[in-house]
Amino acid sequence: MSLEESVPVEPVAEAPREVTHTAPAGGVPQVAVDADQILAITQQLHSGSGVLAVDAERASGYRYSQRAYLLQFARNGAGIALFDPTTTANYGSLQSLVNSLPWILHAATQDLACLREAGFMPSSVYDTELAAKLLGRPRVGLGALLEQELDVVLAKEHSAVDWSTRPLPQDWLAYAALDVEFLVDLHEHLLRELEAAARVDWYEQERALLLTFNGPAPREEPWRRVSGLHVLREARRLAVVRALWTARDERARELDVSPGRVLHDSVIVDIAKHLPASSRAMQALRPVHSRNVRKDPEYWWAAVARALALPEAELPKRTPSEGSIPPPRAWAQRNPEAAQRWERVRPAVVATAELLGLAAEVLVSPEAIRQLCWNGTVEVEDFLTQQGCRAWQVAQLRAPITAALAE
Question: SS3 for the chain, per residue?
Answer without folding.
Answer: CCHHHHCCCCCCCCCCCCCEECCCCCCCCCEECCHHHHHHHHHHHHCCEEEEEEEEECCECCECCCCCCEEEEEEECCEEEEECCCCCCCCHHHHHHHHCCCEEECCHHHHHHHHHHCCCCCCCEEEHHHHHHHCCCCCCCHHHHHHHHHCCEECCCCCCCCCCCCCCCHHHHHHHHHHHHCHHHHHHHHHHHHHHCCCHHHHHHHHHHHHHCCCCCCCCCHHHHCCCHHHCCCHHHHHHHHHHHHHHHHHHHHHCCCHHHHCCHHHHHHHHHHCCCCHHHHHHCCCCCCHHHHHCHHHHHHHHHHHHHCCHHHCCCCCCCCCCCCCHHHHHHHCHHHHHHHHHHHHHHHHHHHHHCCCHHHHCCHHHHHHHHHHCCCCHHHHHHHCCCCHHHHHHHHHHHHHHHHC
